[in-house]
């Protein structure tokens, strides 16, 4: 598929090139080589904020962690939390310029009501001002395209974390390049995650299109005025309505980035795209690195 790469002593740069080549082929690999992770660092929890009181969905928290002193990361990269001998991955929502490492975490519970190992720690148990071990994982399969490429960002729930990092990167590198965010949550009253910032990006042209979808909204007419378009229903339903626009953007060379739920959202969008474009065209988009997913 591509010329062989020589990797000497797990050299990080060579491993990243390997991942980039795979990503360009539309493939991703779980990073099983230790050299792909930065060393573990003790990061301090600086602040934790509950974002969706009253929501019909599980609680969602924004966490600010201290910035790891010697690490660099870019939009698409992952923070790996190490607890006992387990680890959990979380999309990084901020950029190093912002001077903190931001996460967006959904509190999860087992059927018996016990908190999830990672999310329970992050959302409830971790005392602010203390540290936990993290490593940063470079994730070239979800790195940004060149800053001039029109970008379609689609996601739901905590997927907004990974998409926000891309938006922030766009706002710094090429704020006038076409960028479209299509995002879904549950309730328009309680789940307006990072609304002010998204509105600001829309008003200043960083976002040329903004679609917010609320699955528990009873009717669009009931939703208050705001920037962009608002839909009741799931992201995939709104995308169906925006088919013409999506095809137009793809014609102009846009890349599609999807972050959030694998089941439901990402799989339905995949089906829609297969229906509209056919599998050959999808394969071509993947090979060109124009259709990328970070879903879980
Ligand atoms: C690349 C990547 C990026 C991720 N980014 C984020 C992120 O930005 N924010 C975030 O909150 N999570 C993210 N996750 C998911 C995260 O890693 C954990 O899986 C999640 O926090 C649950 O872990 P836990 O230890 O709390 O739950 P566990 O103790 O493993 O399980 C608790 C309960 O939750 C259920 N559960 C576990 N995982 C999921 C899931 N993904 N969907 C639905 N139910 C589940 C289990 O069935 C169980 O009932 C990401 C995962 C990956 C692979």
How many structural units, i.e. domains? 3
Give the strand line-up of the largest sheet. Answer: 4-3-6-1-2-5
Mean pLDDT: 92
Q: How much helix, percentage-wise, in residues?
A: 25-40%
Task: Just name the CATH architecture of the largest domain.
Answer: 3-Layer(aba) Sandwich
CATH superfamily of the largest domain: Nucleotide-binding domain of ferredoxin-NADP reductase (FNR) module
SSE-based structural type: alpha/beta
Report the top-level CATH class of the largest domain: Alpha Beta
Estimate what percentage of residues fall within beta strands.
25-35%
Distance between the termini: 27 Å
CATH third-level topology of the largest domain: Rossmann fold
Number of helices: 8
Task: List low-pLDDT spans.
Answer: 30-35
Shape: globular
Query: How many beta-strand segments?
Result: 12
Any idea what the radius of gyration is?
Answer: 19 Å
What is the element string, with H for helices and E for strands? HEEEEEHEEHEHEEHHEHHE
Sheet with most strands: 6 strands, antiparallel
Which molecules other than protein and nucleic acid are bound? flavin-adenine dinucleotide
